[in-house]
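thread: overnight batch results

M.L. [08:02]
morning all. the overnight job finished for the chain we discussed friday. pasting input first so we're all looking at the same thing
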Amino acid sequence: MALGYGWLALGLRLGTATAWTGALTLGTAVLALEVGRQQGWRWLQWLALAGLSLGWYELILYQMLQADSGELGDALVVLAAVAVVIMAIYYRQRPLS
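M.L. [08:03]
and the structure it wrote out:
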C-alpha cells in the first residue's frame, strides 16, 4: 500500500523540479527496496537501487541549478564525486538477498 502511494506521488510530480523531488524519489526507492526484500522480488530491488541513484542525482542537480553560474568542469567534478560515493556505498553493502 505504501509503495503504491509512493509511485502515485512520483507520477504526480513528473514535470516538476523542487527541492523535495529528490527526497521523494529516495523515499519511494527505500520503500521499494524493503518491499522487494520482504517479497523476494529481485527485479524490484534492482529498480529500487536505480531509484536511489536517481534520487541522489536529483538532489545534487537541483542544488547545482539553483546556484549562481559556475564552471562546467566544477559541475562535472561534483557529479563524478557523487558517482564515486554511490559506488562505494553500493560496494560496501551486503548483496541483495
